[in-house]
Amino acid sequence: MQAKKRYFILLSAGSCLALLFYFGGLQFRASRSHSRREEHSGRNGLHHPSPDHFWPRFPDALRPFVPWDQLENEDSSVHISPRQKRDANSSIYKGKKCRMESCFDFTLCKKNGFKVYVYPQQKGEKIAESYQNILAAIEGSRFYTSDPSQACLFVLSLDTLDRDQLSPQYVHNLRSKVQSLHLWNNGRNHLIFNLYSGTWPDYTEDVGFDIGQAMLAKASISTENFRPNFDVSIPLFSKDHPRTGGERGFLKFNTIPPLRKYMLVFKGKRYLTGIGSDTRNALYHVHNGEDVVLLTTCKHGKDWQKHKDSRCDRDNTEYEK
């Protein structure tokens, strides 16, 4: 009895294999003959409608509905590689070809004159004092308007000055906050202020969101990303720089050059490695301690002592005076 069952199973399996080979051979021959017909008709300039194929045609592999750079918030970019940061930096300047004639709407200015609108500050959003000074200066000028329909230029209330992710003044989730503004319009007729961008030691010019067609008023902007007659190059001023005031200057009777003690003064960190290190390492050649005072310190970053050179101790002492 068991022998009969084994023979029956073997016979069934053999029949199934024979059927599979048979139908597979038919499909293979049909496919080859169809391709030959297409090749022959192509030579003769003829085209015949192809019959239904035995196997269905599947569409291309599905792509994520959300772009890859929006799947995670920008906080996770701290953990990506330097190459990925550089690639992300290139996406910040998608409007590289923007100029005033192509990315600025002059009709808003011709209609109501040059008026600047500052977005109202959102509840719970932190704004550094330096950026508050900029906004206050705009709001105190004769160009300010509280009516966005009258505005020719728009300035964000979101603090974009410090885009170094290691800074305590870094504003998180700025990309989504900017995109949610109903007046954003891909940045058209907007002006973005920025002093610091990227993260040490590879200071890329990543401000954390796509500025679109917005103009950029930025310090230390590279010539590669600067858009002539569109962006504005501004000096890198200290965060505690006063809005107005200060001691009286030494300029008298339009004397040129002015009667002052110092001609050039700079005080800042000397990058021992990374972008900008070559420039600041060379400043000591110009320093004379009299009318040209250029002071740098090596104390920058947690592992600065690993990279210190023979000048660091002397420079640090002069810097701390």
UniProtKB/TrEMBL annotation:
InterPro entries hit by this protein: Exostosin, Exostosin_GT47
One of the GO BP terms on file: heparan sulfate proteoglycan biosynthetic process
GO molecular function: glycosyltransferase activity
UniProt entry tagged with the keyword Phosphoprotein: no
TM ranges: 7-28
All residue ranges annotated as the Exostosin GT47 domain in the record: 111-315
Top-level division of the source organism's lineage: Eukaryota
Pfam families referenced in this protein's UniProt entry, alphabetically: Exostosin_GT47
Residue stretches in coiled coil: none
Keywords: Glycosyltransferase, Membrane, Transferase, Transmembrane, Transmembrane helix
Keyword Glycosyltransferase: yes
Family membership: Belongs to the glycosyltransferase 47 family.
Protein name: EXT1 protein
Name of the coding gene: Ext1_0
